[in-house]
Amino acid sequence: xxxxxxxxxxxxxxxxxxxxxxxxxxxxxxxxxxxxxxxxxxxxxxxxxxxxxxxxxxxxxxxxxxxxxxxxxxxxxxxxxxxxxxxxxxxxxxxxxxxxxxxxxxxxxxxxxxxxx
Length: 117
What we know:
Helix content is 4%, strand content 57%. The strands form 2 sheets. Strands 1, 2, 3, 6, 7, 8, 9, 10 and 11 form a 9-stranded antiparallel β-sheet that branches. A hairpin with a 2-residue loop joins β1 (8-12) and β2 (15-16). The protein is built from 1 helix and 11 strands, in the order ββββββαβββββ. It is mainly β.
């Protein structure tokens, strides 16, 4: 029986973040579209190449530096599952604005399409 993913850890340049459960990963890469002609399905075309996207909510603590989080660029982000799979996103940067709401900080990283490592 296959072990199912329950928890994930998000790391930036090797350092784990205080991410809450519920972090998400879009692996990015080629986004395809089905193509058809008058006779029906022909194949798929690549519409665009999307970046990988990692979203998570961090718990804020006294040593959490929001400005440093906002300024992350050219980082290596690892999305590590508790089933042993890890996805690596190279050239990652903070996308949009880091937002703190109470004790939580929402952050999104984007970068090269993810690699299974």
